Amino acid sequence: MVNLTKFGFGAGLLPLIALLMFLSEANADRNDDTPVLDVDASGTVTPLTDGLMILRSMFGFTGDALTDSAVDLTNCQDCDSEEIEKYIADVRGLTFGKINSVDDQNISGSALNGKTLTIGIEDGDSESVDLSGLLDGVGVTSGQASAITANTAKTGITSDQASAITANTAKTGITSDQASAITANTAKTGITSDQASAITANTARTSVIDSHWTRFPDRYYPDWRHEPDFYLQLPVLSGLWGGRLNSEAHNFATSTRNLNFINQYEPSENYTVNRIWLGLSIVPSPDVAALQLSKVKGEINPRSINLYSFSMSHHKDGNYGAIYFTEDEVHVPNVYPVTGVWQRYVSRSQIEDMLPKLYSLFQLDDESVAVNCLSLTFHLNSDFSVSVSGECSGTTTFVPD
């Protein structure tokens, strides 16, 4: 028996060298360059084919359960489960005593070059072994280990063992009831399937509640039920401008407008004097939306299904300004039956285009001037965009230091 340690190899490499010699005799029908761990003789060693079958064998899997979905059917030389089972058994059956008895040849010219071990055989062909698979100390590379990290829910085995069989998504080797139990209890370890279902149902309800318009006091949703992603917020208000959103109409409220803006340009405790007020209403038009849906059934393609009615009021010190709605001639009677009614049929995009223009006209972001308008004109252009203009003037506001 040759003492390999004198060639610079530690005792930990002796089983690997003897394994090569043993398998070269036990599997003579394989190509000489087939890696030892290539259990299906496909030409390559991969973690989710050869590695998975070795691990399955160690867990007691046999027959088709050993090889299911793990054999490289395109390139394998040993494709049969019985042959593969026998090959792995040969590897696992190798004992230290057999290691000490298999070497009747002299080893010469052996060397370790990086991760490759070359074993020189006197009067014979040398053998090369790739040792990179031993880098992480558990028999697979770190890359292979990362590829099989998902399956940690298999009680009774270590996390490393569970990770190594992640590809076995069909849960081969356990009963269908056990598989169903694992599926039902996903991410809810330690509770029953009924409890898990209750959590799932309640999560869905929580999601709906969290997105409801009542959870956002800084937003006004004109039609949350039919256009839940459409909401309005107060613009930037400077100087003495104050603003408030109103989602609910009350019969005796001082204002039923949805957006209210007031500038008390001369601050006072009095509730009625010296103020500029601007109130806007944007409410859904359900009958018009129903009309749009009817158009669709008549093969008419309306520009929008959800339409809204826009109105406003404005005064300074109780003196109300005039509000006009005009349109290009092309719209009457082609779209609207008469003049001055288009504001009852506005779309979300028109509202989002129109409001910033109105806010800019009133200079709501100005620190020192409060604007009021004797008259305002909203004009519908031929392309359905809206122009906003007015006969307006500014009042200097008193802003305390």
Question: Could you write a compact summary of the structure shown?
Answer:
By secondary structure, the chain is an alpha+beta fold. Helix content is 27%, strand content 17%. The protein has helices at residues 14-26, 47-58, 64-67, 81-92, 96-99, 142-147, 159-164, 176-184, 193-210, 286-297, 348-361, and strands spanning 111-113, 116-119, 127-130, 241-245, 259-263, 276-284, 308-316, 319-320, 322-327, 369-380, 386-396.
Secondary-structure blueprint:
Layout (H helix, E strand, L loop, with lengths): L13 H13 L20 H12 L5 H4 L13 H12 L3 H4 L11 E3 L2 E4 L7 E4 L11 H6 L11 H6 L11 H9 L8 H18 L30 E5 L13 E5 L12 E9 L1 H12 L10 E9 L2 E2 L1 E6 L20 H14 L7 E12 L5 E11 L5
Structural class: alpha+beta
Coarse shape: elongated
Secondary-structure element order, N to C: HHHHHEEEHHHHEEEHEEEHEE
Report the biggest beta sheet as strand number plus sense, adding barrel if it closes: 5 strands, antiparallel
Radius of gyration (Å): 40 Å
3D structure, described in words:
- This protein has 401 residues and is an alpha+beta fold.
- Helices cover 27% and strands 17% of the residues.
- The protein is built from 11 helices and 11 strands.
- The strands form 3 sheets. The chain has a 5-stranded antiparallel β-sheet. A 3-stranded antiparallel β-sheet has the order 1-2-3, with no helix packed on it. A 3-stranded mixed β-sheet has the order 9-10-11, with helices on one face.
- A hairpin with a 2-residue loop joins strand 1 and strand 2.
- The termini are far apart.
- The N terminus is likely disordered.
